[in-house]
Amino acid sequence: MKNNYIDFSDYFGSNGFSAYLSYCDEDYSSLNNRNKFVDNLGFNSRNLVVPKQIHSNKIKLVDNPCRIDNVDGILSKTRSTVLSILVADCIPLFLFNPSTQYFGLIHSGWRGTHSNISQNAINKLKEEGNSSNSTIAVIGPSIGQCCFEVGPEVASKFDSSYSIKGNKDRMLLNLKGIVKDQLIHSGLQKSNILLSSECTYCETETFYSYRRQGNLAGRMVAICGWH
């Protein structure tokens, strides 16, 4: 039977640390569905950290299961904690430092990317004694440049090298490329960044897409923690 998730765990190369992104088999904006998914992965859903995301650049360090308002990035070093974020076109960014065993999940849409949430996360890790040189990142499935058409008011917020011409005055924005470069600028090694080529808009049978489905779109859930 096909798994209902993508498993990024092997990329991080640490025995016991696991990272997953669900497919669109269930709407994981439902906490019940999210809890079931987490339990089926072999975690304990009672250890879940559930942020209320607002497309900000706010990062929170957590050391116990909780619900947190108004935050789009969560970091922890507590092995019993299971982190989660919801996505449906925005980037799920997984972070892990094998030296310190800090780990994190970041929700980065264009607003969070513009306000540099990934760099905020790396800076927070640095404050906690993590070398960016040894931090590993996965930029998970999200909307690709092939489909992320934006108006000039959004495109102009980013360097023009990240855009190609779309229809009329619209531009196609490379959000994943921006986040990758932000991570490199923050000190991560290129070889420590995995960038998924999968586009949530294109792959209609695999992923939810807010751009494609509007308010009918469900949400995928990204999960990471220790087994």
Shape: globular
Low-pLDDT regions: none
- CATH homologous superfamily designation: CNF1/YfiH-like putative cysteine hydrolases
List the domain count as a whole number: 1
Distance between the termini: 22 Å
Individual helix count: 7
Helix % is: 10-25%
Reconstruct the topology from this structure.
Blueprint: E1 5-7, H1 9-12, E2 17-22, H2 31-40, E3 48-51, E4 59-61, E5 66-68, E6 73-76, E7 82-87, E8 91-97, E9 102-108, H3 110-114, H4 117-127, E10 136-139, E11 149-150, H5 152-155, E12 163-165, E13 171-173, H6 175-185, E14 193-195, H7 210-213, E15 220-226
Parallel strand pairs: 3-5, 3-7, 4-6, 10-14
Antiparallel strand pairs: 1-2, 2-15, 6-9, 7-15, 8-9, 8-10, 11-13, 12-13
Which properties best describe this structure?
single chain, 227 residues, six-stranded mixed beta sheet, 15 strands, CNF1/YfiH-like putative cysteine hydrolases, alpha/beta, globular
Give a verbal description of the structure.
The longest helix is centred in the middle third of the chain and has 11 residues, at 117-127. The protein is α/β, with parallel strands linked by helices. The two termini are 22 Å apart. It has helices spanning 9-12, 31-40, 110-114, 117-127, 152-155, 175-185, 210-213, and strands spanning 5-7, 17-22, 48-51, 59-61, 66-68, 73-76, 82-87, 91-97, 102-108, 136-139, 149-150, 163-165, 171-173, 193-195, 220-226.
